[in-house]
Amino acid sequence: MAMPSSGPEQALTDRRTRWPTLDDILQGSHELPRWIGWRLRALVTLVLTACVLMFFVAHWLSTQPKLPFSVKGTAEGLVKVQTADYPTLQRLEGLVLTGVSQPKAQGPDALAAEVAPVTLLMLQRSGRWISDPTLRQQHAAQHRQMNHVIRDWAGKGQTVQLTLLNAADETVLIAPTGWSGISPLFWLLSVLSVLVLGAGAVVLLAGPQWRNAAYALLAMSQSGQLLFVAIESSLGLFSPDWFVQLDTHLRLAFDLISAAALVQIAVLHPVRLPKARWYVALSWLSAMGLWLGMGELSSAWGWWCIQIACMGLLVAAISLMTAALHATPHPFTRVMRRLTLVAVVSWAFMSLAITQGLARPDMQLNITAYGVMMWQVFAAMAVLMSPYLSRSRPILQEFSLLAASSTVAASLDLLFVAVFSLGQFTSMTLSLFFSFGLYLIVRRWLMTRLPGRDSLTMERLFQRLYRIAREVERRPDTLDGSLMRLMRELFDPLEVTLAPGEVAHSTLRSNGSMLLVPIPVWGPRTVADRHVLVLKHSHKGQRLFTLEDARLAERVMEQLQRALSFDQAVEQGRSEERLRIAQDLHDDIGARLLTLMYQAPNAEIEEYIRHTIQDLKTLTRGLAAQSHGLSEAAGEWKRDLSQRLSAARCELDWQMSLDADLTLTMVQWSALTRIMRELVSNAISHAKANRVQVHLKLANDVLTLSVEDNGVGREPATWSHGLGLGGVRKRVKQLGGSVRWLEADPKGIRCEVVVESFSGSANPTGTQGATNPGPDSQFSH
Amino acid sequence: MAVKVLILEDNPVARGFLCRVVRESFSDVSSITEAGDLDAARRLLGHAAGGRAAPSADPFQLILVDLELPDGSGLELLTELAGYPATRIVTTLYSDDDHLFPALQCGADGYLLKEDRFEVLVEELQKIVRGQPPLSPAIARRLLTHFRTGEGSAFGGGHAPQTVAPVTPSAPVPLDHERLTPRESEVLTYLSKGFTIKEIASLMGIKWFTVNDHIKSIYKKLNVSSRAEAAVLASKQGLV
Fold first, then answer.
1. Burial, A216: exposed, middle or buried (Cβ in 10 Å; 0-12, 13-18, 19+)?
2. What ipTM was reported for this prediction?
3. How far B113 CA sits from the closest chain A CA (Å)?
4. Is the same domain home to B147 and B165?
5. Any CB–CB contact under 8 A between B126 and chain A?
6. Is B208 near chain A, with CB under 8 Å?
7. Model-level pTM?
């Protein structure tokens, strides 16, 4: 009973002991944890919770008050009514709004009505991006006043009085935003936010390690940032007081967390740097200290401090990545370093633009609203794709870069206006050009690290593929070597190794720094000794393997397998057909000839038919047999000749010296067999010899065959070349050699056959002779 | 002593020819029975297909069997004749080892090529009956692999789909009595290189009949090993 149950376990241990290398290469099991059980449940729970939260927030937003028109800042720092939602309010368009108050109550306390001022500052979406502390306090205070005005808001609607410049006050009804009033931007950004959160969770759940935890933190804070941006995009003038405060503080914290987490990732990935613990502790401590010390942003330089500290942490991360690159070159780190660099530069530009752009408040407003949003989207995209860098679609990468350069474009626009006092149109054009150029440069600089296979054109690839198939067909053991060479040419990796093991498909490992390609099972190779090609670091460590690369490798293998099995099928069909022909010839014609031979009227005809039968047998054996070794064939020739000669009471002197044992092709084998048989039977029947010397020699690829008898033959030059000698000439010609007949010393005839470059001889002339016998027969008769 | 002969051959002309060969070879042939197919031969021998032929009171001493017969292969009869006290000779047109090796394994004592000259056939037949089995270099090579690997890989290793092998390649490591002695293995090696028995005798410095004994012993072992294989196979398949 114990035997069957131990079976699978035995197989497992066998498997482990036999194939340790693939796991070694991957530093652990090469099978990812399967997404079953608690991991999947946790992920689903998290994402569902995030979605529920998103809808909850949306519901809350839909109950928030909204003015029945949109407002816009002007260059003079005033707030203008932009587009009205109802036709009745269209008369207000273009008027300047200065305040909102509760409608004058009927009665004595009418004077007590407060007016909440509406300024450009109020349109600032987040306190996080107001650099001046006094302005920030004002921003918060004004929102507080506004909240006071609509303190009776119960989610149903309220009338307010608008104070307008150069016009009479106007009383309007403000209604809840409603689901339709939520800006589409909210949905886009919040979905992205959930995605980023999900990516972080996936990475952490797939491998609970410190670096993955840091990535999850980074993703979480970016996701939070996006959520805040999303909510802000829908709130407008009536942001609740608590939200303004929360927004400022949390977004600050998120920025610091992201920067510190990035340092931790840089220290731990791809290899753990020495003193990693200290770097990590230092970065987290400084982030925490900054948040505690400067979190209130009360002093004038507090905001700058935070901005520079974030930059500092990012720069630290970049330099740590550089250090890691020196230690172990890894294309992933290279790409990450560049992405971080883009983030730092655009961050610096943005900060600079916001502080310098105070002179044009309306522009600055736009920059803080949209520039910051674009930067956040870029950062989120970068975070989202970094664990899947080799798999992410190019479109995602392009989009993130586009977001980065639009941040820069917007920042530049404001900077040009503010610093060089350029006109708005000029500065916009200039900055667009500049950032487009920047985009192109950055794109090239960043993307060249990812895919690219210019080293081998498709045409040449297919040529190589079929050449390999041909070669493998001849010598199956060359498969691994030639595939390694092909992969080297295709991807130019730092290292190609062969590991026993098994993967179902071409797969990427270690964030695309490693590509595993299964070698097709073919020919004598059994399933048990499957091998996997392990390619490390594409393009001498400059690039990452992408999903496209894996697909290409997969397709290459598929094609090869197809070519091989096709060739195999063709060869099998060919040999089966040959065998069938041989059998039919042998059985039918052979039996008929045999009957004919038994009934031959005289000995001459009998002998003639006997020769025909023997030729037929040689022919059919040549057709049926796959290959003949030269020495083996020689053994049979000797035996055959000695039998024939002894039957004719004739002595055989057989000498043979071979310096190499070749495998004869069918053409070579049958040609040599017939030549020898013909010459010997000539010696017996025509020359009446009683001694035949056969010398077969192969030296330096030159085959020499000499057959000498002591018979009565003389003057070979005068012979008429009948069927027998003509046949010998034809066969020698097939081998690409030469033949001559000489008079031997005391008496008799010596025939010498010389084939230069014997190993390469048979194929060209042989196939020609086989497929196109016309000219041959012309010459031989 | 009178020799009783059975000739199993479907071609009447060839049958006549073989009769002449037999009569020429032995002066004391008492009777020659001819059969045209396997069924006729079985009727003469008194057994059913797949059964064992038991020697009757007046058994055949020499049986010539053609391989290609209208109702099957001569190998079937050879297998059924295991234990029958007669010299069994395969007469065939096939000279390749893919046909002859299985015949030897089935217990054939020798083979004659039907297209050989009358005198040659007579001589060969006499040699075989005297106990001098023929071995071609190809068959010697195959014997070497057969005994070296101990597996039935000598047959049917992909190159010979036409082989009519009654015994499938499935034998375990050979038993002691079926291993070759160094001398036998040497003889086989020479044979596989095309040396004649006389040449081998002079090369090894022994008498030619000693070489012959070695060959006979190899022959016997081949048959034994083939029978052992068959037994293993039979017990595996639950036939016994």
1. buried
2. 0.76
3. 11
4. yes
5. no
6. no
7. 0.53
